[in-house]
Fold this protein.
Amino acid sequence: MQDGQTILKKGRKFDQVLDAACALFLTEGFHRTNMDHIAARANVSKATVYSYFPDKKLLFLEAVRTEIARRAVDAEAGIPVDAPVRMVLEFSARILIGFYMSDFAKKLYRLSIAEAESFPELARMFHNSGSKMAQDRISGYFAEAANAGDMIIDDPDLAAAQFIELCKADIFERSMLGLTPEINEADIVRVSKGAVEMFLARYGPDSGRTHG
């Protein structure tokens, strides 16, 4: 859990409840989902749900945080961090695009925007567990690559933010607004290749730049 939040009591059906809650919240929204719905979806009693989570908001935040963390672990496992920089960037770009274009991420992003004023904890959690976590880890990699002379980067945090935004170019806003069909492999290749080429032109060792 996040710092300062309640320590949860876990049991045999804890994950079962989390999975059901996450699916319902993202499909029906926070306000239309209640503990009865979650108990039915998880095939447990409402008492079981309350034994793990004293209120719906706590369950919502934990369900979403857990799913983001799971996806992050799966994504990182596919990045060959010891490979050449270009290969790492290519893998990272595809993973970032895959996440931001996923049904899960789009539903959560829309929900975070819709509930931003009445439920700021959700927006903060989505940012800290999603975009900020990705930016921090990419920034750490960029700092190491710069120290090794493989990239020329003076501000790894800014460079990481820029790389993430390059991976959203042309497709993210249209997809979020429902203005484009499902993103296909050709779209992913086009955007990821463009992101890597532009990024290396700015920060690569052959960019002609120097530190400072």
Observations:
- The radius of gyration is 20 Å.
- DSSP finds ten helices and no strands in the chain.
